[in-house]
Structure formats: C-alpha cells, structure tokens
C-alpha cells in the first residue's frame, strides 16, 4: 500500500475518557451510552465509527458516481453500528442506508452502491470481519 495520509488519535481512560487527534481538530469527551449503563454525556466509539464510515462511504460513492458520469452529490449515507455480545467478547455489525438523489434509476443506483462498497476503505477493512448490510432508500 502507498500511504496517502495518516490520521493519528489518542484515547485515554477508554470509554469514559477523551479522544484527541494529533492536530487538535477533534478533542472530545467519551462516555458509555445510556443503553449500556453510562451517562451518555460524551460520544462513544460506535458513534465515531458510524460517522467515519458514513462519510467515507459517501466519498467512495462520489468517486464511482463521477466515473460513471452520474451525479450523486446529493446522496446521504447513514451508518448504523450495532455493538453486541459474541461469545465471551463483543462484535460489531453495520447497516449502511444510502439515500440516492431522485432520478437515479434503481439498477444504476444499486450498481453504484455496490461499486462504492468495493472502493471504500472502511468497507475493505470490515469485509469478512463483520456483517455490513447495504440498504438503498
């Protein structure tokens, strides 16, 4: 792999601490979600993963859309990240809900979303490791 960019972040005190990027642009408190017995005051790793995956997938969709000469600039991607028990540990599952702009034919939209799933670094990192469902809305 030829590195194009390296992001660096440090988290302290796990889910009840802080996460800070090396450039200081992200500096936020972390906390357990209310659903897991926390106070929910800060964000949590699943929310951060969901935001990153949604943004990255949207960019990948833009790349394949431009290559196909289809305007997907008004598309929206929502990532739902589920944390669950798996054996003695925990696991993640993701649903990506892609809302395509009006006027894109269903078959064309499906192809673009599937191509984006092949291009997106998050999709490539998770493939074979966690279930990722694609839903076109």
TrEMBL record:
Gene3D superfamilies: 2.20.25.10, 3.30.300.20. It comes from the Bacteria. Belongs to the OsmC/Ohr family. This is Organic hydroperoxide resistance protein. The lineage of its organism: Bacteria, Bacillati, Actinomycetota, Actinomycetes, Kitasatosporales.
């Amino acid at each position: 792999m030829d590195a194009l960019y390296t992001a660096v972040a440090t988290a302290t005190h796990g889910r009840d601490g802080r996460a800070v990027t090396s450039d200081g642009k992200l500096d936020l408190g972390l906390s357990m979600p209310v659903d897991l017995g926390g106070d929910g005051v800060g964000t949590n790793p699943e929310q951060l993963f969901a935001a990153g995956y949604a943004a990255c997938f949207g960019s990948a969709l833009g790349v394949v859309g431009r290559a196909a000469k289809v305007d997907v600039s008004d598309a929206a991607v929502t990532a739902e990240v589920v944390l669950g028990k798996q054996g003695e540990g925990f696991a993640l599952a993701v649903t990506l809900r892609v809302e395509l702009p009006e006027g894109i034919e269903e078959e064309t939209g499906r192809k673009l979303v599937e191509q984006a799933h092949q291009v997106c670094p998050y999709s490539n990192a998770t493939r074979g490791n966690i279930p990722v469902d694609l839903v076109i809305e």
